[in-house]
Amino acid sequence: MKRARWRAAVAAAVLVAASACSAEGGGADDDGKAAAAPARPVVTTIDTGVSRLLAVAISPDGRFAYAAAESEIAVVELATARTIDTIPYEAGPKQIRFSRDGSRAYVASGTLAGGLGTIDTASHKVTGIIPVDGGPLYALGLSPDGLRIYGANTGAGAVVAEVNTGAVRGIPLPRGDRGGVAVSPDGRYAYFTTDTSLAPRLPGPRSVAVLDTTSGAISATIPVDAARPAELTISPDGRRLYLAHFPPFQETPNAVSVIDPAATALTGTIPVQGRSTGLTLSPDGRRLHILNESGTLQTADTTSGAVTTTVQVSSPANDLTIDPGSGKAYIVGDTKLHVIDLG
What we know:
Layout: H1 2-23, E1 42-47, E2 55-58, E3 64-68, E4 72-77, E5 82-88, E6 93-98, E7 104-109, E8 116-120, E9 125-130, E10 137-142, E11 148-153, E12 157-162, E13 168-172, E14 181-183, E15 189-195, E16 206-212, E17 217-223, E18 228-234, E19 241-246, E20 254-260, E21 265-272, E22 276-281, E23 287-292, E24 296-301, E25 307-312, E26 319-322, E27 329-333, E28 336-341
Antiparallel strand pairs: 1-28, 2-3, 3-4, 4-5, 6-7, 7-8, 8-9, 10-11, 11-12, 12-13, 14-15, 15-16, 16-17, 18-19, 19-20, 20-21, 22-23, 23-24, 24-25, 26-27, 27-28
């Protein structure tokens, strides 16, 4: 009788342990197979041989990464994970954008003289730098048809360059810091971040200026009551703008501002960690990727606004881009190019 009670107790203990294991996700699934733990993104690191990388762009065919430092640009062949060429660029590259066919790379020049640089991607040679009024260029946006480049600088404001003719015109914006440029999917509007405070790293008036690309006039200004504006990106359907921020201190609470362009109004925020240095959307617009200077890549669900995944790479981390073809994320900092397979 005692042995029967002992056997019953053991069986009950085994049942409880099995139930707990299943609840924790470490047991078997309905088919009797072991349940797999969620896979963590794979991070591959490429040493470019170029120091203090600040910006990165991926060619449209996904074969090359252009990683820019203060006075040179490394051309990285992604299949072999090695730098195959280095392009001298003394004008202080701040951001790179490829033409739609990949034959040219456009560079925002951050020196005091400013300028829009063009690189022939076949020869890896700088073919020219178009001067612009108003000082350094910090951000670029390309029209959907590839015929216009929109730039933002610290002085005059918006810069519009015609690709075929090289003609450049300036459009006044409130003076101040510029952090980002985004162009609507239909090409009708271009958006520019503006910080008009006297001390840009402290709280002050910030906004997103809306350029009507047909009339060439600023049609609206959207107030953004948050820290210094940084990167700006727009959803594939054009219904949401996302604005990252760079607070005065690392420990300051931070968020991504969510803007409704049609209503020209701030509609929400997505809380994130650290000071943002990169911002981009997945090709389908369902995931927003936010990079901070400490090397933390946070991914937020754009429907719920919740951060769902966090990946840590080495610090510093200065820029982020996504390859639409592979869905991989590319991050630069110091001499390193980090490649993250987001799955």
